Amino acid sequence: MKRISIAISLISILFCSAILTRALPEDEPEFGYDEDSANGPQYWGDIKEAWETCKTGQIQSPIDLSTNVVQVIPKSGSLKYWTYNPQYATLSNRGHDVAVNLRGDAGSIDIDGSSFFLQQIHWHWPSEHTIDGRRYDLELHMVHVSPQADGTNKTAVVGVLYEYGSPDPLLSRVEQYLVDIPKENEEESVGEIDPSEIMSGKMFYRYIGSLTAPPCTEGIIWTIDKEIRTVSIGQVELLKNTVLIPYAPRNARPLQPLNQRNLRLYVSKNKPLY
Q1: Domain residue spans in the chain?
Q2: What is the value of pTM for the model shown?
Q3: 145, 133, 146, 130: which is closest to 61 by C-alpha?
Q4: CA distance linking residue 177 with residue 65, whole number of Å
Q5: How far apart are CA 54 and CA 210, in angstroms?
Q6: What is the model's pLDDT at position 258?
Q7: Where in the numbering of this chain does the Alpha-carbonic anhydrase domain appear (predicted)?
Q8: Residue 139: CB partners within 8 Å, gap ≥ 6?
Q9: Which of 103, 35, 53, 100 lies closest to 253, judged by CA?
């Protein structure tokens, strides 16, 4: 009987070990935002060869949008550069953030005569970009792509910054789904979303940078709306409670060097600069 008990105990230990071994890869994210962690932002370029640009790239994002280096570009007429359409969307928990995925033609933005089509919207907390050193409470990214003749895509991202205040209409629209969002990498329909409600376009910054998460691909055209919106504390906390625990405190990459890049602020001649 003693030998049988020992054998059962060993089998139980091995079984539990196998479960733990399978669980570890899911519990430990590939990359994180804790600067004291072995998979923190300063180590992203060492985790995978495909992510080397996170370490070696010279035009990385995010950056500080500083009035000391910005070149002001006055433009006559309207600064509206987008045409968006209401479109059905799904909400997904990607583990490190929450994304709204647009289905069908949600519209586009025009950059130097090229159309970039809106594909997805997601959030970072706190903001990744800063303005004159000030970091805001939330940043929304609208990801656009422009198909090229060689089969590749160019990417343009529109960023919107938020400070605590009144609730944000877009998050109010989807927060009922955030309460009971499906598991990581699953999607849930949220009905129709109108991206035109997000933009103002009175003034905006523009520069060439990178994705702010691995693989940190460069050549991304960034447009940051200068108008600061408001979001409630509860809405940001709801976003935090949705993602995996390692990402809950923050999912914002630290600022990257400007490295002599051109930073422009487009303003209407009919609008005051500040």
Answers
A1: 60-268
A2: 0.87
A3: 130
A4: 34
A5: 9
A6: 97
A7: 29-267
A8: 123, 124, 125, 126, 127, 128, 129, 159, 160, 161, 162, 252
A9: 35
What pLDDT, on a 0 to 100 scale, did the predictor assign at position 179?
85
Tokens 């998979």 sit at which residue? 39
Q: Cite the active site residues.
A: 96
Nearest C-alpha neighbor of 56 from the set 40, 37, 42, 36 = 42
- For the chain, the distance separating the N- and C-terminal CA atoms, rounded to the nearest angstrom, is 84
Which tens digit of pLDDT belongs to each residue from 34-67? Answer: 999 999 999 999 999 999 999 999 999 999 999 9
Q: What number of CA atoms fall less than 13 Å from residue 257's CA on the CB side?
A: 7
CB 251 within 8 A of CB 124: yes
φ and ψ at residue 160, rounded to 5 degrees: -130, 130
- Residue 28: the pLDDT is 60
124 alpha carbon, distance to own chain's centre: 5
Over residues 210-249, the pLDDT tens digits come to 999 999 999 999 999 999 999 999 999 999 999 988 898 9
Share of the chain above pLDDT 70, in %: 86
Domain 60-268 has CATH 3.10.200.10: yes
For residue 78, what pLDDT is reported?
Answer: 61
Phi-psi region of 60 (alpha: psi -120 to 50; beta: other; left: phi over 0): beta
Tokens of 95: 């583990």
